[in-house]
Amino acid sequence: MKILVAVKRVVDHTVRIRVRADETGVDTANVRFSMNPFCKHAVEAAVALAEAGHSSEIVVVSIGPRQATDVILTGLAMGAHRGLLVEAPETLETLAIARLLAAIVAEEAPDLVLLGKQAVDDDSNHVGQMLAGLLDWPQACFASAIARTEEGLEVTRERDFGQDTVALALPAVVTADLRLNTPRNTALPMVMKARQKPLETRPAESYGLDLAPRLTIEKVTAPPERAAGQRVADADALAAIIVRERAELELN
Amino acid sequence: MAILVVADHDRGMLAPSTARVVSAAAALGAPVDVLVAGEGAEIVARAAASLNGIARVRLADAAALRAQPAETLTPLLLRLAGDYTHIVLSAGAVGRDVAPRLAAKLGLMPVTDIIAILGPDRFERPIYAGNAIQTVHAPQPFQVLTVRASAFRPAGSAATSASVEPLEPEGLPALVRQLSEARTEGDRPDLATARIVVAGGISVGSAEGFKMIEALARALGAAVGATRAAVDAGYAPNDWQVGQTGKIVAPDLYIGIGISGALQHLAGIQGARRIIAINTDPEAPLMKLADYALVGDLFEIVPLLTARIEATQG
After folding, report:
1. Cross-chain Cβ contact B312/A222 below 8 Å
2. Residues in a beta bridge with A203
3. pTM for the full model?
4. What family is this protein classified in (chain B) (predicted)?
5. Is residue A252's pLDDT more than 70?
6. Ordered domains of chain A (ranges, CATH)
7. Using one digit for the tens of pLDDT, what is the confidence trace for A193-239?
8. How far off is chain B from A77, nearest CA to CA, in Å?
9. In whole angstroms, what is the distance from residue B43 CA to residue B9 CA?
10. β-sheet with A152-159: strand ranges across
């Protein structure tokens, strides 16, 4: 089967972000960017399916600024075969991203689209579900295991109560949760080889879609600071505090 | 116009999140209906009907809705959307699955993980694992929202129950077949809405060590949580994970045991009213954040706490 993997360039998840003083957003000048961690799980799942003989072509796509080429190269170094950068402003909303991906699906005709369940910058957790809706495809979100079957796929999903396993026919959309796999590290020779793989760049406008924003971000603020705490002397003192706190709860 | 809240339920029980989503929806300023969609969900519908502030409950009972799949719920909600200005779900597994699919079908942006409602089209939501808060204005003709139940107080019980009106959910598509469920069995309260949470980190050392955490939780009537590292190590089940990628909790009292306090975990407990931390390392981020911090060996402290608390309840 042919697999399309969508990946996002985000502020590296280890960076402690700062809210701008004028409350217009988060300061992303001079910080490290990398592939969104959940997208890495999605790429790894695609490559693992290919290595198991279930896929012969993996296309990795990113929608974003020119610098997003870096995360496509990461995907190619991990084992994807071909890259596509759709050049667009970083501020595109998830509906616009899903519409672009639906147009790319119409051109590429993949059997499976793999994505990370959410990006760790805006924490939206939208795009996979929106894409599946636009395509009227089945979706298996928050996947912690994927198995190829005759019917299509069996996917184990993280639920509030534990996990469940669902069967779905292809084509389908699957979003990766963090226990799906352990993404491989990319050694330098793989990175060098990735630069030889085909990578096409297209402007977002060339798809002729309505990408206009629906929302306005009025401001971005830092969360309220907590008051300073206190050291407790020993377990007895802590037990007394817990008993007191709980008694207060029962009154409220 | 009116607002439709989609009830959370599992195994014939209304989830505690629904009362909180109803109270969040009431802040939107229009009458609130509740949709119960499932199979054999009449008891759930009756429970929902007793919540305060509800105009009516609409019950969609069909075999295809048993596992509440997004591919089946979405067309049902599209049929009902004409009666409403907002569809509101909790930001749990079902809401996260359904809301974006539904919004895309309507050509709209969903606004998700809402922690404050400032008006019918103005909301606050966290980004960057809760390290920043966005104020979003959504000037759309219709809104699809998910709210973090833990950020809202639950609606109380009504003096008289609302009516339950059955829908006829025929002809809904079923694209996904549920094969099996693996449940984390336990007698602890629902983690996402618990008033007290006792959580353990990697220093708890083993699944056996987590029995000690559970014993303290049982003594307090608390839910049990865990860090990603403890879950990765196999000490605790996946659905106990608290953090950016796990469950978000906002208890009145959170007790973190052997937890250093990675950013990802702190993101999940920002809404906690009081934080207590126990750790050998006084410099651990959670120890610095805590209202009360005790430096020491958790294996000595936790059994002692459990015994003391059990003693106070005779």
Report:
1. no
2. A87
3. 0.93
4. Belongs to the ETF alpha-subunit/FixB family.
5. no
6. 2-207 (3.40.50.620)
7. 999 999 999 999 999 999 999 999 999 999 988 888 999 999 999 99
8. 26
9. 10
10. A199-203, A82-87, A57-64, A2-7, A112-116, A172-176, A139-148, A152-159, A162-169, B176-183
Among A residues 137-176, those touching chain B with beta carbons less than 8 Å apart = 137-142, 144, 154, 157-169
B9 three-state secondary structure: strand
CB neighbour burial string for A100-127, b if at least 16 within 10 angstroms, e if fewer:
bbbbbbeebebbbbbbbbbbbbbbbbbb
Could you tell me if A93 lies within 8 Å of chain B, comparing CB atoms?
A: yes
- Looking at residue A238, its amino acid is L
Q: Report how far residue A242's alpha carbon sits from residue A221's, in angstroms, rounded to the nearest whole number.
A: 32
- Look at residue A154 and tell me whether its pLDDT is greater than 90: yes
Q: Where in chain B is the domain with CATH 3.40.50.620?
A: 2-166
Alpha helices in A55-179 (DSSP H): 69-78, 94-108, 127-135
Nearest-angstrom CA–CA distance, A186 and B153: 47
Distance CA B119, CA B266 (A): 28
* Residue A240 φ/ψ region, left for φ over 0, alpha for ψ in the -120 to 50 degree band, beta for the rest: alpha
Instruction: Please state, for a pLDDT cut of 70, what percent of chain B lies above it.
Output: 100
Q: In what order do the strands lie in the sheet with B32-38?
A: B111-114, B143-147, B86-90, B3-6, B32-38, B54-61, B163-166
How large is the C-alpha radius of gyration of chain B? 20
Between CA A113 and CA A41 the distance in angstroms is: 13
- Tell me the CATH class for B196-311: alpha beta
CATH 3.40.50.620 fits B2-166, yes or no: yes
Over residues B8-52, the pLDDT tens digits come to 999 999 999 999 999 999 999 999 999 999 999 999 999 999 999
Cα nearest neighbour of B98 on chain A = A129
Q: Let me know: does B264 contact A118? Beta carbons within 8 Å.
A: no
Coil, helix or strand at residue B71: helix
User: To which residue do tokens 């759709």 refer?
Assistant: A86
Judged by a CB distance cut-off of 8 A, whether residue B178 touches chain A is: yes
CA distances from A133 to A28, B69, B104, B275 (A): 32, 12, 6, 41
Structural tokens at position B47: 């429970």
Report the chain A residue with the minimal C-alpha distance to residue B78.
Answer: A133
Grouping H, G, I as helix, E, B as strand and the rest as coil, residue A143 is: strand
Structure-token pair, residue B61: 């009972």
β-partners of residue A230 are B292
Q: What's the pLDDT at B97? A: 98
- CATH 3.40.50.1220 location in chain B: 196-311
- For residues A202 and A223, what is the distance between their CA atoms, to the nearest angstrom? 38
Angle between helices A94-108 and B93-105 (to 10 degrees): 70
